[in-house]
Amino acid sequence: MALSFIRDSVEVSRGDLADRFGLDRKTVSRIVGGLLEESIVELAGYREIGPGRPQELLKLRGEWARFIGIDLGATHIIGLLADLNLKVEERIFYHIRPGLPVQVILKQMKAICDRLCTSMPAGTRSRAIGICVPGFVDPRTGVSELAENIPGWQDINLRDDFEQSFECPVLVDDSSRAWGRAELRLGANRGMRDAILLDAGYGIGMAIVADRKLHRGSTNRAGEVGHTVVQPGGPRCACGNRGCLEAVASGRAIAAFAQEGLRNGKSELLLRLTKNDPGAVTAQDVAIAASMGDNFSVDLLRRAGVGIGLALGNAVNILNPSMVILAGGLVSRNSVIEQAIIEGVRASAMPGLMEQVEVVTSELGTDGSALGAVSMAADTVFAPN
Ligand SMILES: [Zn+2]
């Protein structure tokens, strides 16, 4: 409890701890003495409060331990090594081809963990590993139940597998929720109380923050905004249904529409970017072509953005958040899609609800989920809150 308070306050005095937990000075001195002896907290400076002795301030000692975070997406694996204050010391990015066999992906993830372990300063060891994957995840069992966008990925007990390989605690959660956790701990939005975070990349997910906590739902599956139906009878989605938001507006859908357009001669520029191979086109190529003024690509992104925005506005109507955070590879540094999303939200959220909502873009770039994963690992040190 005291440790979580020090973490969340950044700098704290013994008096602050006594006030916060209603403890007497002697008890606080004993607790802090133990933490200083263990080197998990250190002196951060002094606070002058009128005459008398200045108060000693305490903060977490980041180097006390190192943690690993792994973010598996449909097209990437990101690995981070960070200290107790979540200061990132090393980052590894692997691009993966959609359709890679499950065993190969698992091997890559372990190879990244191995490399991060060897990067740790001598004498330190990883206290825990956090892993996030898209789709259905049960954090209590550590089983990744289903990731529709990773073919063949089903019922994989990541916790058991990685605990056996690395002999440390392993935490597993869904990537969008991991991003929400990162925003709560590290983002510009750490003070948020009720918020929704849209995570748009190859797939589309959502994290819901209710009363400063992540909302999980009865079976840990809350936030599947990507599988809300927006076009009945529309394109087939990876989940088996038709016309889901993901099937019409995700990175995967944008690539599919672009491919079809290229086969019909819609954009010379985009075709050149794919080296004349329409089958190789990605949403990122579309974003590059759009930034170069390609009308076909701008139109694809705009349509996807408005679709995402409409679904997001519906979520605003249902959940009444004070903040909407736009995140994920699709919105990161992409003003066309970002503007279209905002336009869509304004069109579908009720005026009485929209006026109260602040729409912001995540400042965590493309590493939000990976940071959330490393934060899950570091949180094993603290009391649950
Ligand atoms: Zn679906």
Write the SSE topology.
Layout: H1 2-9, E1 12-13, H2 14-21, H3 25-37, E2 41-47, E3 55-60, E4 66-72, E5 76-83, E6 88-95, H4 102-119, E7 126-133, E8 136-138, E9 143-146, E10 154-157, H5 158-166, E11 170-174, H6 175-185, E12 195-200, E13 204-210, E14 213-215, H7 245-249, H8 251-263, H9 268-273, H10 283-291, H11 295-319, E15 323-327, H12 335-348, H13 351-354, E16 358-361, H14 368-378
Parallel strand pairs: 4-7, 7-11, 12-15, 15-16
Antiparallel strand pairs: 1-3, 2-3, 4-5, 5-6, 8-9, 9-10, 12-13, 13-14
Summarize the structure.
The chain has 385 residues and is of the alpha/beta class.
Notes on the protein architecture:
40% of the residues lie in helices and 23% in strands. The protein has 385 residues and is an alpha/beta fold. It has a five-stranded mixed beta sheet. It has a five-stranded mixed beta sheet with strand order 14-13-12-15-16, sandwiched between helices. The chain starts with a helix and ends in a 7-residue tail after the last helix. The mean pLDDT is 92. The structure holds zinc ion. Zinc ion (ZN) binds at residues 227, 237, 239, 241, 244, 246.
N- and C-termini, Cα separation: 8 Å
User: Main sheet: which strands, in order across?
Assistant: 6-5-4-7-11
- Amount of helix: 40-55%
Stretches where pLDDT is under 50 for at least 5 consecutive residues are: none
* Cofactors, ions, other ligands: zinc ion
Query: Element order, helices and strands?
Result: HEHHEEEEEHEEEEHEHEEEHHHHHEHHEH
- Helix and strand content put the structural class at alpha/beta
Average pLDDT level: 92
Basic shape: globular
Strand content: 15-25%
Radius of gyration of CA atoms, rounded to a whole number: 23 Å
Number of E-type strands: 16
Sheet with the most strands? 5 strands, mixed
State the helix count.
14
